[in-house]
Amino acid sequence: MKQNSTPFNNDQEAKQRDLSLNKSDGTNKPLTTNQGVKVNDDNNSLKAGERGPSLLEDFILREKITHFDHERIPERIVHARGSGAHGYFEVTNPIPQFTKAGFLQEVGQRTPVFTRFSTVAGSRGSTDMARDVRGFSVKFYTQDGIYDFVGNNIPVFFIQDATKFPDLIHAVKPEPHNEMPQAASAHDTFWDFISLMPESAHMIMWVMSDRAIPRSYRMMEGFGVHTFRFINEQNESHFVKIHWKPKLGTHAVVWDEALKISGNDPDFHRRDLWEAIDMGNFPEWEMGVQIVPEADEHKFEFDLLDPTKMIPEELVPVTIIGKMVLNRNPDNFFAETEQVAFHPGHVVPGIDFTNDPLLQGRLFSYTDTQLSRLGSPNFHEIPINRSISPTHNNQRDGHMRQEINVGRVSYSPNSLGGDCPYQSRIADGGFASYNERVDAHKVRGRSESFSDHFGQAKLFFNSQTQTEKDHIIRALRFELGKVETMAIRVRMLGILSQINTELAQKVADGLRLVVPASPEQPMNHGVSPENLGGEQEPKSVPSSVEFSQALSMINNPTVTPTIASRKVAIICADGVDEQAVLDMKMALLKESAKGCLIAPYLGKVITDKGGEMPVDFSFLTSSSVLFDAVYIPGGQGLNELSQDADVMDFLNDAYRHCKVIGVQGQGIELLSGTSFANKIDNGDEGIVIGADTENTDFAANFIAAMGNHRFWSREAGLSNN
Ligand code: HDE
Questions:
Q1: pLDDT (tens digit, 9 = 90+) per residue, 446-490?
Q2: Closest atom of ligand 1 to CA, residue 157
Q3: 349 preceded by cis ω (within 30°)?
Q4: What is residue 679's predicted lDDT score, i.e. its pLDDT?
Q5: Rounded to the nearest whole angstrom, what is the distance from the C-alpha of residue 293 to the centroid of ligand 1?
Q6: Same domain, 493 and 360
Q7: Per-residue pLDDT band at 1 (split at 50, 70, 90)
Q8: Which of 208, 294, 500, 618 is the Cys-Cys partner for 475 at CB 3.0 to 4.6 Å?
Q9: Are both 509 and 365 inside the same structural domain?
Q10: What is its biological role (predicted)?
């Protein structure tokens, strides 16, 4: 057992008990004002005569309206759109040799967590399906205080220095003159900035990949981005990069699907997370670490402090140390998901920072932003932010102070209060910053070791499968195609040509442009570079790893195929084969997946046996982009659906988005009206056909095909854009 703090707490419910102190439930309770006075009439304001003016005296009306008027708080400047859930973190492989962090010490030790996923650029009400980075934040309520992991689903970032962050965000947010476009990077100001910032080249490869359009928050990796430090009991430091690997694998949708999901269900990811937890399909991630000893700090061809670089897993493998399970939806979105305040500077003994200049800037920004968003330095007292380990200090007062500090002493040193609260020795769990030696001139500049902007961008692109490369090319054609200023498009082609000439050429072909012979130099307004501060001349250092399997979602070796929690659309109409539907639903349920009945109408369908089955969605209220696969059972009556344009769109989209389509018995006739009718006999593995309804292997074959997620070979003949 660790000797320096409280014994290990293993209480995953501790935070729920803490939150319950603030919960309020009005069931079977009288309506009251905020002052506790019971209300007799909540429907009429007080007036001078029934048709007369309202009276100022009406304290019930005034209180209700005033509170309403002040309901909104500023949304987050970035990551405004998000969804959260409660759960726990469990240690599976303790690493006390690297960190003394109390919550990472013993196998089976559990710590309550609250996790929030988000998009970056869009407003609170924007679509979940924007092409964007996803935030991945975890608040650990540890026995030694709060530890916040505040990462993304992409392991690198656009910029190297915090001072460029306001510029980056101003460029990507809707343009200031007309507030367009919402939740989209496909516009001039973003690409103008990016085309002038070659350090963003690596990140651009990730953001243009399918990582930026995840199938689900539950199917994304998480990365801490910066190199942090782990500190052990001997006060030794190791560099660490933190990873989260989703148990369901890392999966994405396709761009055309993303656009249609945004129209069909802008809450797609929020709903997916909520429903999965509601149904008991608790999302799970493994936490892994890449550890680099201090002595190896300069061993790599990139700088560990540069947040535009990751450590290829081929150089330093990821060691799994624990898992996170999200098993409880919030009770109240505002109180929990909106008011939760993360901060990369919330660390506990055993975890410390490095000099990554992006991280250093973040350490300032997060408290500052909570002051404007939540309105007071007492935001740590909001229940979702409250530590479950006791807090005592001499900080006092401020807006909305909840704590009632007793006694006359609020300073240190003091003799009147026995010099309490007292400071803790390191051995008793007191936090002491890592004793790093710093001996340098004050300088506003950048290390030469940060000047490789293209080496890892190349590694990323080269590590993708052809399908993934094609998706990156198409994403860039789309994004740059929305840019109106020709010079920006051309400048971006210059950047791309330094990553990969084939990439640049194919993007240029889509835009009908010529790749410039040499990339454009930054504008310095006539001032020679030596008279300006700023970056080093960009360069490209070849990566010592030429191909990294972990960078491709399709090749990713950690994925075990599963269809758990996936949704299947079962096409129905009166006369549908009842047994086939029931068998498929049962087979899916066994794999923790769900079959939903879609019919031309809501209510019920009458089956071939004269029975009734409830319909989940009509073709009007649903779309195949909201499902992972389509199943067409046999039965009379389905044929008529081939005259229905909505049904044909449903099936054509499922095919276009490379999804599994299973069809049994007479159901096959329905496919004759689709755009892919001529492909059915071509051996497309994603079309699973059961000629007769007795085929017992059918459901198993269908489920096995679904485990592949998508059948990319179909894309070859679909579109050349
Ligand atoms: Fe953030 N970021 N960020 N960021 N960030 C915020 O804090 C900031 C960066 C990340 O679910 C803000 O509470 C600066 C990298 C996530 O509540 C703000 C810089 C990474 C979230 C802020 C960065 C992140 C935020 C806005 C460059 C990945 C959502 C609201 C120096 C490692 C947290 C808030 C949540 C939120 C500042 C760059 C992740 C303004 C100055 C790199 C997941 O403080």
A1: 999 999 999 999 999 999 999 999 999 999 999 999 999 999 999
A2: 42
A3: no
A4: 86
A5: 28
A6: no
A7: very low
A8: 208
A9: no
A10: Decomposes hydrogen peroxide into water and oxygen; serves to protect cells from the toxic effects of hydrogen peroxide.
Q: Say which residue the tokens 């689903």 belong to.
A: 153
> Is pLDDT above 70 for 247?
yes
Please determine, for residue 694, whether its predicted confidence score (pLDDT) is greater than 70: no
635: alpha, beta or left? (left if phi > 0; alpha if psi -120 to 50) = left
pLDDT, mean of residues 193-201: 97
496, amino acid identity: L
pTM of the model: 0.96
Residue 119 inside a domain? The answer is: yes
Measured from the CB, is residue 365 less than 6 Å from ligand 1? yes
Sign of CA dihedral 123, 124, 130, 135: positive
Residue type, 381: E
Q: Are 376 and 519 members of one domain?
A: no
Listed in sequence order, the residues at least 6 apart from 62 whose beta carbon sits closer than 8 Å to its beta carbon are: 56
579 and 492 part of one domain: no
In this predicted complex, what is the ipTM? 0.97
In a domain, 684, yes or no: yes
Query: What's the confidence (pLDDT) of residue 693?
Result: 55
Place of tokens 């209180």: 63
Quick one: which atom of ligand 1 is closest to the CA of 358?
31
Q: Is residue 158 a contact partner of residue 171, using CB atoms and an 8 Å limit?
A: no
Task: Round to whole Å and give the CA distance between 192 and 429.
Answer: 49
Residues 146 and 262 in one domain: yes
Task: Please report the pLDDT score of residue 262 as a whole number.
Answer: 98
Residue with tokens 């099936």: 651
- In 3D space, the residue among 9, 249, 260 whose CA is nearest the CA of residue 111 turns out to be 9
- Binding site membership of 414 for ligand 1 (Cβ less than 6 Å): no
Catalytic: 332?
Answer: no
pLDDT at 558: 65
Could you tell me if 521 and 612 lie in one domain? Answer: no
Cis peptide before 357 (omega within 30 of 0): no
Exactly one of 22, 28, 86, 152 is catalytic; name it.
Answer: 152
Check whether residue 144 and residue 229 sit in a common domain: yes
